[in-house]
Write a structure and sequence with these properties.
By secondary structure, the protein is α+β, with helices and mostly antiparallel strands. The chain has nine helices and 30 strands. The chain has a five-stranded antiparallel beta sheet. β26 (about 455-465) and β27 (about 470-475) form a beta hairpin. α8 packs across α9 (about 545-559). The protein is rod-shaped.
Length: about 550
């Protein structure tokens, strides 16, 4: 009997052990029986007690909330340690509990609450009520966060992006929550806006191409070209961050939720009055705002700009960059050449405000005027000479010298030489001025040959004796009398019978203005004299000899 009762008692004892002894590695319920030395002593049943640091009962940044008599769940790591106490952990219990809860939230795509409590490489650590998650730096906010201090220890919602219980990895995002709420907010704000509305906003950010304006939870882009009617080089010229501005909603894209804003649309368009204020051919003062390869932009008033094309910049500087003629911010006089209201373009002229230098030259230097200038260029067809008004005149090869061939005469000139010339022609339309150097002293040949006609008898001076004839000079003009023209008598056609310095009467046989030569002959003079004598004193038929006739003629001359 006694044996039987002992067996029953043992069975009951074993049963009670199995019932009351918690499984190691599981979460068990316990009761706080004392708090001492920063630890809570917890009874987990069956005469088993364990110790847990008070900080394990605290949320990040908060004081522990624990008191004697509280029932808590702890994780039983070991039933007994060297001191005969149970090894328990509140933190591990919370972690197990948290993982169960988080896995469910992840599966259901629900938000979870947590607090950022530490900074690690590439991001932050987040306490999700017992489980530690990683928050990448890029997932903290919609825009990069420089200082995450204000966010530390703050309870807030997070979205689980990824979790792996086996490895103990959880990745969360705060940005996804913000974007979602922002999208809802944007949709709500955009729903209240219509194109054409005038709204108030605060300048949030400024870039090179414009400014972002906060319209109360939603940003709109105010492009630099819509800030003012005038040219704006950088938005910071007009706006500053934090400034409150009135803007007009130009466009709303319902799909992308992008809003385009404008400021100039709330001001009067200066182009409405352009045609009336700037009639064609009127001259106005303007300021150079921009210089390009093809011209310069000139602002006539804020919002009204015109282009001075490079071809309309200068009468004389044809192939020069506009930057060599005008500079940015310079004030200039311009003439309105054309207005295109539809394209909002004004064509302006700079050179038209100055007189055409070829016209001025034609007025002040009529043909025949003597001018002086520097040789600017030497070409195969003549010289270019700098003239007043920054223009050039050309001396053609044929106008260099009376006596020399042009190709030879041009060798006498060098770039930079200062020369005199006579204006022979001014063509304003073709912007061409013809000059002559040889005409400087007048036309000596024309002057000398003015009183000389074909058949005239003139006296010349012998300047040279050659085999083929003699060279003579008349009034500074050289001529050559060939051997056959030296005498009627063949025996007398000897050049050596003349000496340099002899004065000889000759008959003019030809006046060639083109080649500027006189044809002279002694033989022709002798024949003409004989003919005249015969006519005066009889003919050879009357029996008188030629000697008698000439003798009588000479006698008559003596008397």
């Amino acid at each position: 009997m006694a044996n039987t009762s002992m067996e029953e008692f043992e069975a009951l004892l074993n049963e009670s052990f199995e019932m009351d002894t918690p499984q190691e590695g599981s979460v068990v319920k316990g009761k706080v029986i004392a708090i001492e030395a920063g630890q809570a002593i917890i009874d987990v049943g069956y005469k088993m007690e364990g110790r847990v640091d008070l900080k394990e009962f605290a949320n990040p940044g908060e004081a522990p909330e624990i008191a004697v008599g509280d029932e808590v769940e702890v994780y039983l790591r070991s039933a007994e340690n060297a001191r005969g106490e149970a090894v328990i952990s509140r933190e591990m219990a919370r972690r197990e509990e948290a993982w169960d809860r988080l896995e469910k939230a992840y599966a259901d795509e629900l938000r979870v609450e947590g607090a950022i409590f530490g900074r690690v490489k590439g991001g932050f650590t987040v306490d999700l009520g017992g489980a530690v998650a990683f928050l990448p730096g890029s997932q903290v906010d919609v825009r990069p966060v420089r200082d995450a201090g204000p966010l530390m220890g703050l309870k807030q919602p997070f979205q689980i992006l990824k979790m792996d219980r086996r490895r103990g990895n959880i990745v969360v995002s705060r940005r996804a929550i913000l974007e979602e709420s922002r999208a809802e907010q944007r949709a709500e704000v955009i729903g209240k806006l219509s194109e054409g509305d005038t709204v108030e906003g605060v300048v949030k950010n400024i870039t090179e191409y414009g400014a972002f304006v906060d319209l109360g939870g939603v940003d709109g882009l105010l492009h630099v070209t819509d800030m003012a009617w005038r040219r704006v080089n950088h938005p910071s010229e007009i706006l500053s961050i934090g400034e409150t501005v009135n803007v007009q909603v130009i466009k709303i894209n319902k799909d992308t939720h992008r809003i385009s804003l404008g400021m100039k649309q709330l001001q009067e368009d200066p182009w409405d009055l352009v045609a009336a204020k700037y009639p064609l051919n009127s001259v106005h003062k303007g300021r150079v705002t921009n210089i390009t390869d093809y011209g310069a932009f000139v602002e006539l008033e804020p919002g009204v700009e015109g282009l001075v094309h490079v071809s309309e910049m200068s009468w004389t500087k044809k192939n020069v960059h506009p930057g060599k003629i005008v500079s940015t911010s310079q004030e200039v006089d311009v003439m309105v050449l054309e207005i295109d209201q539809a394209k909002r373009r004004v064509s302006l002229g700079l050179k038209q405000t100055m007189r055409n230098p070829w016209e001025v030259f034609a007025e002040t230097h009529p043909e025949g005027t003597e001018v002086e200038g520097e040789v600017k260029n030497i070409t195969e067809f003549g010289l270019f000479i700098g003239l007043p008004g920054e223009i050039d005149g050309m001396v053609h090869l044929s106008d260099l010298s009376w006596d020399e061939r042009g190709e030879d005469a041009i060798q006498n000139y060098r770039k930079g030489d200062v020369v005199k010339a006579v204006v022979s022609e001014v063509d304003v339309e073709k912007e061409r001025i013809s000059l002559s150097i040889k005409a400087l002293g007048g036309d000596k040949f024309a002057e000398a040959a003015g009183g000389v006609k074909r058949g005239s008898i003139i006296t010349v001076e012998v300047t040279a004796i050659e085999d083929g004839g003699i060279e003579v000079e008349y009034e500074g003009m050289k001529s050559f009398i060939r051997r056959s023209d030296l005498s009627r008598d063949r025996a007398e056609q000897r050049p050596e019978r003349f000496s340099v310095g002899d004065k000889v009467d000759v008959r003019v046989t030809n006046v060639d203005m083109k080649s500027r030569r006189l044809g002279l002959s002694i033989k022709a003079r002798e024949i003409a004299e004989e003919k005249e004598a015969v006519e005066q004193y009889g003919s050879s038929d009357s029996g008188a000899s030629l000697g008698d006739i000439l003798g009588a003629a000479l006698k008559g001359d003596d008397e």
